[in-house]
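Researcher: Good morning. I'm working through a list of sequences from a screen, and I'd like to move beyond sequence-only analysis. For each chain I'm collecting a predicted structure so we can compare shapes side by side. This is the next one on the list. No need for commentary yet; just the structure.
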Amino acid sequence: MISNLGFPTDIDFLDHLKNHTASAHKKLENLSVSKSILSADMKIGEYCHYLSLMYDVHKSTEDVIFPFLKDIVFDLKEREKTHLIYNDLLFLNFNKDESSIVFENQKITTAFALGILYVIEGSSLGGRYILKNVETIQGLDQQEGISYFTGYGNKTGSYWKNFLNTLTEYQQKNKCENEIIEGAVYAFECIYNHFLNTSKNEN
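Model: Good morning. Structure tokens for this chain:
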């Protein structure tokens, strides 16, 4: 156990979690839709498609996963992202007619749900990296239509460390490392399948 900027983290547990999800994470990153968001030649249509996919991911997280964690993660309201994506799509005149379910609520435990949220919150860190590319694209270079990737802004690091603190404390108390890892792998697999199987809406 060490202290990192005031937030204790269990290095062994977090290393295990990262290592056991590495291949699923890489698999998701290698999808063409994932790569498109980092391309200097990204088109607005590709950007809207990615946002639409992530809207589904976050809506499913907020509808299905958050209720399992309301007594564990106390700032869930501040971690909601669907309204940010909706506003970005609205600015881009993209019509989001319906949302797909990404996560099912069957057989989900609190530990499993924490594993899913680990993946979702981790995407906020990646979002800061993606933002550097997105805000160079013509049509997005006036700081509008990018609120999702802006996310927590300069508080992104502290939000992540706060979550890791909650995650590790829960794991230490309940000895549920395997369930958390299973939830994280499940999240990556669900997002991968959603990205792979959802066709682009040319509206």
